[in-house]
Design brief:
Blueprint lengths: L9 E7 L8 H17 L3 E6 L2 H10 L7 E3 L6 H9 L2 E5 L9 H9 L5 E3 L21 H12 L3 H15 L9
Helix pairs in contact: 1-2, 5-6
Length: about 180
């Protein structure tokens, strides 16, 4: 299925220990299988991590995920986790969470991630950014994420848009931009 031209990445995959009790070995094994699949087909990974950052980064390294790179989707972790992922060749993607008042630590991470290693996303239909928080998210709301990143970094929103768009097509090289 990965050979289908519509497939631009492997994922969403990763580890999520939130509200999980008991054995999580099954998650780690499936994550390893997905990393191996990405390497086999030469497509990047879309990685989810929740309350599992240390295991996520460790397994990415052990399985050679650097060969294909990818994106840490809907990132909510620390700068140290972001740096470790960047060192493994991954981009960091910020969602509507970065616009939330209670996301001070994440805002600090967004200031530090190099613009050339960043993406923005909606994670639609969840996590709608301010001013739509609590509502159903939609792709059009990604502009609010870009605006917040621009505000935090004191740069033009057009610079964020240009960079994150270029980063998207560089990472997902099998995706084709629509004709202008």
């Amino acid at each position: 299925m990965a050979d289908d031209p519509k497939v631009v990445a492997i994922g969403e995959t990763g580890l999520d220990y939130f509200r999980v009790e008991g054995d999580t070995d099954w998650q780690r094994e499936r994550f390893r299988v997905h990393i191996r699949a990405a390497r086999a087909c030469g497509k990047p990974l879309v990685v989810h991590t929740r309350e599992s950052a240390a295991d996520t980064v460790r397994i990415l390294g052990e399985e050679g995920a650097r060969e294909v790179g990818g994106v840490m989707h809907c990132f909510t972790e620390s700068w140290e986790v972001a740096q470790a992922a960047i060192d493994l060749g991954f981009l960091i993607s910020f969602s509507g969470i970065v616009t939330f008042k209670n996301a001070a630590a994440l805002k600090e991470v967004a200031k530090k991630v190099p613009l050339e290693r960043m993406l923005v996303e909606t994670d639609s239909p969840y996590l709608a950014p301010v001013p739509h928080r609590g509502k159903t998210n939609e792709p059009a709301f990604v502009k609010h994420v870009a605006e917040e990143i621009a505000r935090l970094r004191d740069i033009a929103v057009d610079d964020v848009a240009r960079s994150t768009t270029a980063n998207f097509f560089a990472l997902f090289r099998h995706a084709r931009p629509e004709a202008a």
